[in-house]
Amino acid sequence: MNETQIYETLTDIFRDLFDDEEIVLGPTTTAADVAGWDSNAHINIMASAEVKFGVKFTTSEIESLKSVGDLARLIQKKRKS
Fold first, then answer.
1. Nearest to 14 by CA among 6, 62, 60, 74
2. pLDDT score for 47
3. Candidates 1.10.1200.10, 3.90.1070.10, 3.30.470.10, 3.20.20.390; CATH matching 3-80
4. Is the pLDDT of residue 80 over 90?
5. Does the pLDDT of residue 65 top 90, yes or no?
């Protein structure tokens, strides 16, 4: 799965979770950029990403994420290993 496909899948996850078809994600997108992205939503995003991408995140990995770009790179790294 390439970077474009990861962003497309993440965008689908976000649009579904936030019920907002207007969401467009980029590498610099953060919680401050998405209305309703709070700690509960963050847990749902991580759980959905684990299922969709077939990966598992550690607590320290989740805590280190600062942007959607960080998440996309982590997914790409985990799918290669």
1. 6
2. 98
3. 1.10.1200.10
4. no
5. yes
